[in-house]
Amino acid sequence: MAAYPWPQAIMYPFESLPDGAQDTEFYGPYNKLLYHLFPADTNFVVSPGVYPPRNTDPAVEFTVFYNHMPVLLLQIKPPDHLRWASAREQADTENRRRLRDLVPLCPLPKLYALSAFGTKLRFYAAANEGIDPPASPLDARNFVADTIPASRWNSDILEEEGANLLKQTVAEIIARIYLADDYD
Fold first, then answer.
1. What is the pLDDT along the chain (184 residues), one digit of tens a residue?
2. Inside any domain, residue 125
3. CA 105 → CA 66, 101, 110, 118, 142, distances in Å?
4. Which CATH number does the domain housing residue 80 bear?
5. How far apart are CA 84 and CA 100, in angstroms?
6. pLDDT for residue 70
7. Domain total for the chain?
8. How far is CA 75 from CA 4, 27, 94, 132, in A?
9. Diameter of the chain measured on Cα atoms
10. What's this model's pTM, rounded to 2 decimal places?
11. Does 173 fall in a domain?
């Protein structure tokens, strides 16, 4: 029997979601996971929110702040929407816009973001020089081109590889925070 990549108290809320779960059903499990990674007894704060608040189809996200400055964004979409090219395009565009807006406020050299369709993640990192991974060129001549394939959301946080990638990202954030604090 394979070991779980997270404690059972983190795994259970994700595993108990029904097939076809909506994005709202993932808020609690992700909130619990983020507080596991960024404990409440530290200067990190996990804050849920809607971005942009005026949009008719707003993106629900969690922002992890360190001393009121953003260090990680998590956008959540329903897992069933991963199959739609337009939903992937929208998620990618929303993440890039949010990163562009918040990177000047980040105390680190990079602001990290995750785009989640259920438990499938795509990782982003933004600096003043740009966003990694680079944006896909939209093919205006071929409207049906799939410019952002579903395979880009290739990390599942309930599997060891995806969990380890998330843990490494968080470890990098925490290490950079404490390194920066040592020089303040």
1. 467 899 999 999 999 999 888 888 999 999 999 999 999 999 999 999 866 655 556 666 899 999 999 999 999 999 999 889 888 988 998 899 999 999 999 999 999 999 999 999 999 999 988 887 777 766 555 555 666 777 788 999 999 999 999 999 999 999 999 887 654 4
2. yes
3. 11, 8, 10, 28, 37
4. 3.90.1570
5. 25
6. 96
7. 1
8. 24, 10, 9, 16
9. 52
10. 0.87
11. yes
State which H helix or E strand residue 14 sits in.
helix 8-15
Question: Do 132 and 138 form a contact (C-beta atoms < 8 A)?
Answer: no
Residue 119: Cβ within 10 Å count: 21
SS3 96: helix
> Counting Cβ atoms within 10 Å, is residue 27 exposed (0-12), middle (13-18) or buried (19+)?
middle
Distance CA 163, CA 88 (A): 21
* Segment 26-53, tens digit of pLDDT: 999 999 999 999 999 999 999 998 666 5
pLDDT computed for residue 51 by the predictor: 67
Instruction: Establish if 2 belongs to a structural domain.
Output: no
The residue range of the domain holding 104 is: 8-15+22-183
Inside any domain, residue 148: yes
Residue 177 tokens read as: 């925070």
